[in-house]
Fold this sequence. Notes:
The chain is α/β, with parallel strands linked by helices. It has one domain (about 5-205): Rossmann fold, CATH 3.40.50. The protein has helices at about 5-30, 85-100, 120-125, 145-150; strands spanning about 35, 50, 75-80, 100-110, 155-165, 170, 200-205.
Amino acid sequence: MATIADTINSADARIGRHERQRQRLIHGAKQRPCRIVIGASGHFDPGWIPTDVHLLDLLHPEKWTEYLGEASVDAFLAEHVWEHLSPEDGVIAARTCHRFLRPGGYLRVAVPDGFHPDPAYIDWVKPNGVGPGCDDHRVLYNHQTFAPIFEAAGLEVHLLEHFDSAGQFHFSKWNPADGRIERSSRFDERNSDGSLKYTSLMLDAVKR
């Protein structure tokens, strides 16, 4: 059982982590390129600025101006974030990214793939499924329903990885230096035997 001291220490650690993120964002927003991870949860590569919802809430872009100027960001990366939003909020979130992206900038985003042919995978990732965090999943997208979210926000969509409705996997060569997606055909350890046990629906959404 957690003691009062444990609770205080945990809160202090969280506050410290939040402040480190805030300072990274303040400093990194002045650098070029400015590349930001949305919903980082502590995971980010060198050259990327980690943020979480307490700092950059996709549904409240007015708060972003404390740290970012309009059209000031070169790239956003969001791995398994959009499935936690309703489709309507997903469009708002995409518009937020469009607002703060530079022309030519992009958002690389990945979500669970609703056309994955393995029923066990679907049970793992669907809303209220058996996988961790699924109790907070709002929607299970496929490429036909996900791309329009970003097109509605004025972004140009390029699919990177996805299954189609016939269960055929499609892959377009993508550079992990432009945003590494761990839960992908290339990097998820569950695929180490050559099978595609765990993949994501991945796309780049570009501001023209």
